[in-house]
Amino acid sequence: MTVTLDLEASTSDAPTRRTLSNLSLAVAKCKKIVVVTGAGISCSCGIPDFRSSNGLYALVKEQYPDVVMKGRDLFDASLFRDPTSAAVFYTFISQLKKSIDVASPSPTHRFIKTLDSKKKLLRSYTQNIDGLEERAGLIGTASQEAKSHGKGKAKIKMKEVRNVQLHGDIHRVRCTFCSADFPCTQDYLDSFLTGTPPDCPECAARSSARVARSARALKVGTLRPAIVLYDEPHPLGDDIGTIHSADIARKPDMLIIMGTSLKVHGFKKLVKDFARAVHESAPSPAASAASPLKKNAKSFAGKVIFVNKTAPGSEWDNIIDYHVVGETDRWVEKVIDDWKKARPADWEVQKTLVATGESSTTGTFHVAKEITNTIGLKSKGAKRKNDRKRENVPAAEDEDEVFDITLPLPSPPPSPSKRPRSRCHYTDVEMSPSKKSREVVLREPVHFEERGLLFGNATNASTKPGATLEDVFDLGPNVAAKPKTTSKKSAKAKAPKAQVEVLLESRTTKKATLSS
Ligand SMILES: [Zn+2]
Q1: What residues are designated binding site?
Q2: Who surrounds ion ligand 1 at CB < 5 A?
Q3: Residues 6 or more apart in contact with residue 476 via CB below 8 angstroms
Q4: pLDDT of 470-509, one tens digit each?
Q5: For the chain, does the N or the C end have fewer beta carbons within 10 angstroms?
Q6: How many Å separate Cα 379 from the centre of its chain?
Q7: Catalytic residue positions?
Q8: 246-269: per-residue pLDDT in tens?
Q9: What ranges do the domains of the chain cover?
Q10: In DSSP terms, which residues pair with 352 in a beta bridge?
Q11: Domain 3-493 has what CATH class?
Q12: Which residues does the annotation place in the binding site for Zn(2+)?
């Protein structure tokens, strides 16, 4: 049975307050958390509501007054059969990307990043295509950093991927013919805005090379936004399936579902698989009783938490343990507050030596940055900890404690030329043009049977009166916050890896639990 907890009532109602605090403590204590998100987590990021009369849809209608396309038609794979509906789609996506480009990650995105920095995130899975997780510092499946290039098709480097983008990424485009994928540059965006798909540079280069040696020209494909439409297989479906299975096998100890109405078939299945794995990992009541001091936190381990404004359907009664009613941003802020109070040691500011890019050639070290976003982690030693650098594999309870310190990611720099693409943690290293390279990836399509993954419903969005569920997309609304880069993924910064790990003396930080 699902326990409903109203965030608003937490100030006045003592039992609700206690349970919410215990949930926060459980988050702080769990070590293999799977986070699953939908459009609700991007609502506060300021994406304009494209369903409203002033929204993006109205702009598209202005450009194509004679075309009638309903919400779902705009995202159905069948739109490519008709040149006009394809043109509307390109224009719409171009408008949507522009609004996403000026949005910033929400506290909820940053919370997921915090879980990762503190070695508690097993993996994040999202239905969203806005790429805001990556802007918060979580490498996504669409990221170039997640791809390994050997012979044949590109594979995903599972350990690098912290956020699985179930419906693709609006910031990338791919060729409809050869499947090569590229960052969505301003030129491509301008072309899409007029309803015209740009030619694939990869196909074009191959064709002109043949023409140059007097051979027959080849077909040149066009580029499309690299998002997954209704009734369309995910190009990375096989890799995503592998990651999903691996995460299930790792026995996640908590599932947090945020900002989704859980209505899309393929997505529901993924959530149910994780929920089952989490419940199977729950400690037995006997184990909790044996350790009365830890009882509160322990009894909250192995739970499924759903944070959303609207309730889940009755099919979730035996799957979701707690429904936190409210905004995801408010809940994550409460969790962090409770966590800081209950386990201040997790938030201690550490000082450490920091190696910079220049130092790797000159042999000098720069001093100490203050690092707050760090965490104690138990492990036998540096070697094993290194193995877990990307994936968060916690070690057994009673091993020596090791602090793994990573610098926080810089906020996005003001211009595309200064934007580092790599996992560079330095804010003070600017890239020279010679340190950048453009990468072109050729990828063969892979097939994924799971259909209809796309677009759950943004139930955390304030649904306009009269809007049907079909009108509610999983894109998350958006409004301008700051100007941002356009071709953020085009430049690969060759900055040094900046992960610094410092081993501290073993220390005991057994804090009193927050039970009350
Ligand atoms: Zn191509």
Answers
A1: 175, 178, 200, 203
A2: 175, 177-178, 180, 200, 202-203, 221
A3: 39, 40, 41, 42, 43, 45, 47, 128, 130, 132, 458, 461
A4: 333 333 333 334 444 444 444 444 444 444 444 343 444 4
A5: N
A6: 27
A7: 167
A8: 999 999 999 999 999 898 888 999
A9: 3-493
A10: 369
A11: alpha beta
A12: 175, 178, 200, 203
